[in-house]
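Need a sequence for this fold. Nothing fancy.
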């Protein structure tokens, strides 16, 4: 089966042929596609016997761009980044700057120790380590057969 774009020329659009085509060409432009897409960074979540690890890929940012908060049992990672270039003594015909933001939220498991969360940003990766409660560490052990 082939999917075909549906173009209904009835109604108001019949009076203004090509009206939709103008807007489609504007919003299908690569300028809008690249800037209107919300980009959420990829994340890896892993677990060891002592910690939970969250690694979030966010290259090109500075550590000041990150805000990490804990609200009850939810870890929130928020980023706001605005970059603008400015050169004095120049007249601009066009000047571009960029703004990006995102929020990633993670519900922590019951075994997480909320008082022992560490974060660092290095080589474009935000690394958040969440320690496990002592009782959670002791919950798993090997049982020897007799």
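Here you go.
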């Amino acid at each position: 089966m082939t999917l075909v774009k549906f173009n209904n020329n009835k109604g108001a659009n019949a009076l203004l042929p090509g009206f939709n085509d103008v807007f489609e060409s504007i919003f299908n432009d690569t300028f809008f596609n690249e800037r209107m897409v919300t980009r959420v960074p990829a994340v890896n979540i892993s677990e060891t016997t002592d910690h939970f690890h969250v690694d979030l890929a966010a290259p090109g940012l500075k550590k000041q761009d990150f805000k990490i908060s804990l609200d009850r049992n939810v870890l929130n990672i928020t980023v706001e980044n605005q970059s603008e270039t400015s050169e004095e003594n120049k007249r601009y015909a066009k000047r571009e700057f960029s703004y990006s933001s995102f929020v990633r939220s993670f519900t922590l498991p019951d075994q997480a120790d909320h008082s022992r969360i560490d974060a660092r940003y290095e080589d474009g990766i935000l690394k958040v380590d969440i320690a496990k409660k002592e009782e959670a560490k002791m919950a798993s052990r090997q049982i020897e057969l007799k």
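For context: The chain has a mean pLDDT of 78.
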